[in-house]
Design a protein that fits this description.
Elements lengths: L6 E4 L5 E3 L9 E3 L6 E3 L8 H12 L14 H17 L4 H25 L3 H28 L9 H14 L3 H12 L6 H20 L1
Antiparallel strand pairs: 1-2, 3-4
């Protein structure tokens, strides 16, 4: 995944797209013994108190599915992401971590729907996946919006400018144009934002204006 996959580009909300593989599937680590599950970035960041919460609330209750294939199906990957979110809630982690899990879950659902569309699958199933994606995106938007009020940067490996751009993109998606506009303005006037990011912010500003005129 990390050494051979060719990055083709990213979606507006920063979802990476690789040639021949959906790398989002593989960003969750699960312990098959105790059920502790987290995104790769956060897996080792656990305190003794959090471990006790996992043991009491996850390990004693979860029933893990055994997998033998070398790659994950989307169903298997979704199960792991759901367990990662459950673990995050149980261990009382930061809001940003829960928001990031929701964001990546939305990316995973998008990839799943895209794969089904290529296969000509049942449209009802595809619509259900898209509805679930919207729910996760909204949770990600609300979570990151709350996190920036109480947490310091960097956040989930992202600096202030990247987080602002992400929230602005999600805000526009949910037609919260005032929020999106303020964040874009802060990026355009930020001395720390690089030229590439400011170019993306200008494009987003134009899109916000275009979408606002349609409402």
């Amino acid at each position: 995944k990390t050494g051979k996959a060719k990055l083709l580009g990213t979606d507006p909300d920063l979802r990476p797209k690789y040639d021949g593989i959906d790398a989002v599937k593989y960003d969750v680590i699960l312990c098959p013994s105790c059920g502790y599950t987290a995104l790769t970035r956060f897996f080792n960041n656990i305190t003794s108190g959090q471990a006790k919460l996992i043991q009491d609330n996850i390990s004693r209750n979860v029933r893990l599915t055994e997998y033998s294939d070398e790659t994950y199906s989307y169903e298997q990957a979704l199960e792991r992401y759901k367990l990662a979110l459950a673990n995050a809630v149980v261990k009382k982690c930061r809001m940003s971590e829960k928001a990031f899990i929701c964001l990546k879950s939305a990316w995973l659902l998008r990839g799943y729907a895209e794969s089904l569309e290529k296969e000509g699958a049942d449209q009802k199933q595809i619509e259900e996946l898209k509805e679930s994606e919207e729910e996760y995106l909204l949770n990600a938007f609300n979570g990151f919006s709350e996190a920036v009020q109480t947490e310091s940067m960097p956040m989930c490996g992202m600096d202030q400018t990247t987080i602002d751009f992400l929230i602005a993109q999600l805000a526009m998606h949910f037609k919260k144009f005032d929020v999106a506009g303020k964040l874009v303005a802060s990026i355009l006037t930020s001395p720390s934002a690089n030229a590439r990011t400011k170019d993306k912010a200008r494009d987003l500003k134009d899109e916000i204006l275009a979408q606002y005129k349609k409402t």
